[in-house]
Write a structure and sequence with these properties.
- This protein is mainly β.
- Helices cover 10% and strands 42% of the residues.
- The strands form seven sheets. It has a four-stranded antiparallel β-sheet, with no helix packed on it.
Length: 381
C-alpha cells in the first residue's frame, strides 16, 4: 500500500471517528432532555430574572453550623441538624419551630424525615443512627426521648435516608466505608454493602440516594472519588462503579426519572451519570471556570446537590457560599443565589427541594437556613 493510500485511509478513518463522536454527543443530549423543553425552545438556556427565585424565609434558631436538612413529603416542614447538638423541626410556611430535639451526640452530620413525616432520624460521630418519634411525650427534662438507636457501624454516620414509602426501613452510610440497610421496627441491620467485599468503597461513604422509581436501588458517594450503584437484594457486590471525579464525592442524587444520578465533589465539579450504561453524560465544571477569575484561587468544593422536578435544573451548593442553578442540558449556570439579596454569609453545606418542587431550602455554616421560592412569572420546572 502506497503512502498516498495510507494517508487517504487515515483521513477517512478520522472522519468516521469524528462523526461517531458527534453522534455520541447528540445522543447524550437527547438522553438529558427529559421534558422536551430544549427541543421546543431550540435548545436555548433556561432564563432566570432577578425575581424568579427569591429568599422568602430565613429560619434562625441554631447556634452552630448547619450540616444537614430534609423536607417532609407534605412540603410544609423541614428538619435541620447542627453542631449545636440539636435537631430543629420547622414549619416552612410560618418559620416557626415545632420541635427542638436535644441529641445524644452533639456532633451530628445528617438528618432525615420518615415518609409519613412522623419520625426523624439523625447520625454523627457517635457511629449510631438515632430515631425520634415526634408524637412521643417529652421526658421529665422536657426532651424528646430516642425511640430507637441503630448501632452497628464502626465509624461515624455521615448520611441516612428512609426507603421510599417505607417508614420501617432506612439506609445509612458511614466512615467505615459501608452502607447498611436497617429494619427500624427491630433495630437490626438487614444488609451491609461494602466492607469486606472487593466491590465496596475504599474510603468513607459520604452520601446516599435511593431511587424514587425503584426503591431496591440506591447509589452511594465516597471519599474514594467514586459513586457506586447497589441493589438491596444483592449486598455482596456493587452493581456498577462510576469513575470520573478527582476528589471526594460529597453528594449524590438520583435524577427524577430514576435512570440517571448526579454527583458533587471536592474537585469542584458536578457530573451526571447513566445507571444503565455506566457512562458519564455531562460535566458541570469547576467554579473558577464559571467566574473566569484568578486562577490561583482554590476551586470551591461542591457540598450538596438537588434536581428540579423535571430534571432540567441542577441546584449545587459550594464551600464559598454560592449556590449555582445549572441548566442540566446545556451545562450552563442560569443563576447564582450567592449573588442575590439575603444570600448566605458562609459555606452552604446542604440544600433540598420541596416535594412539589416549588421551594428550595439551603443550610449554612452561618447557622441559618433560607427558603427560596419561585416567583415572578417563573413556573416550576
Amino acid at each position: 500500500m502506497s503512502v498516498a493510500e495510507l494517508k487517504e485511509n487515515h483521513k477517512a478513518a478520522t472522519e468516521t471517528l469524528n462523526s461517531l463522536k458527534q453522534r455520541l454527543r447528540d445522543r447524550r443530549i437527547q438522553l438529558l432532555d427529559t421534558d422536551g423543553y430544549a427541543r421546543a425552545q431550540g435548545k436555548t438556556p433556561v432564563a432566570f430574572g432577578p425575581t424568579d427565585l427569591v429568599c422568602c424565609r430565613i429560619l434562625q434558631g441554631h447556634t452552630g453550623k448547619v450540616y444537614s436538612l430534609d423536607w417532609t413529603p407534605e412540603k410544609d416542614r423541614i428538619v435541620s441538624a447542627s453542631t449545636d447538638g440539636r435537631l430543629i423541626v420547622w414549619n416552612a410556611l410560618t418559620s416557626q419551630k415545632t420541635h427542638a430535639i436535644k441529641l445524644p451526640c452533639a456532633w451530628v452530620m445528617t438528618c432525615a424525615f420518615s415518609p409519613d413525616g412522623q419520625s426523624v432520624a439523625c447520625g454523627g460521630l457517635d457511629s449510631a443512627c438515632s430515631i425520634f418519634n415526634l408524637s412521643t411525650p417529652l421526658d421529665k427534662d422536657t426532651n424528646l426521648p430516642v425511640s430507637r438507636t441503630l448501632s452497628g457501624h464502626k465509624g461515624y454516620v455521615s448520611c441516612c435516608q428512609y426507603v421510599v414509602d417505607d417508614d420501617t426501613r432506612l439506609i445509612t452510610g458511614s466512615g467505615d466505608q459501608t452502607c447498611m440497610l436497617w429494619d427500624i421496627t427491630t433495630g437490626l441491620k438487614t444488609s451491609v454493602f461494602g466492607g469486606e467485599y472487593q466491590s465496596g468503597h475504599t474510603a468513607d461513604v459520604s452520601s446516599v440516594s435511593i431511587n424514587g422509581s425503584n426503591s431496591r436501588m440506591f447509589v452511594s458517594g465516597s471519599c474514594d472519588a467514586t459513586a457506586r450503584l447497589w441493589d438491596t437484594r444483592m449486598a455482596s457486590r456493587a452493581v456498577r462503579t462510576f469513575y470520573g471525579h478527582e476528589g471526594d464525592v460529597n453528594s449524590v442524587k438520583f435524577f427524577p426519572d430514576g435512570n440517571r444520578f448526579g454527583t458533587g465533589s471536592d474537585d469542584g465539579t458536578c457530573r451526571l451519570f447513566d445507571i444503565r450504561t455506566g457512562h458519564q453524560l455531562q460535566v458541570y465544571p469547576p467554579h473558577q471556570q464559571q467566574q473566569k477569575g484568578d486562577s490561583n484561587i482554590a476551586t470551591p468544593n461542591v457540598t450538596s446537590i438537588a434536581f428540579s422536578i423535571s430534571g432540567r435544573l441542577l441546584f449545587a451548593s459550594y464551600s464559598n457560599g454560592d449556590v449555582f442553578v445549572w441548566d442540566t442540558l446545556l451545562a450552563e449556570v442560569v443563576l447564582n443565589l450567592g449573588t442575590l439579596q439575603n444570600s448566605h454569609e458562609a459555606r452552604v453545606s446542604c440544600l433540598g427541594l420541596s416535594a412539589d418542587g416549588s421551594a428550595l431550602c439551603t443550610g449554612s455554616w452561618d447557622t441559618s437556613l433560607k427558603i427560596w421560592a419561585f416567583g415572578g412569572h417563573r413556573t416550576v420546572i
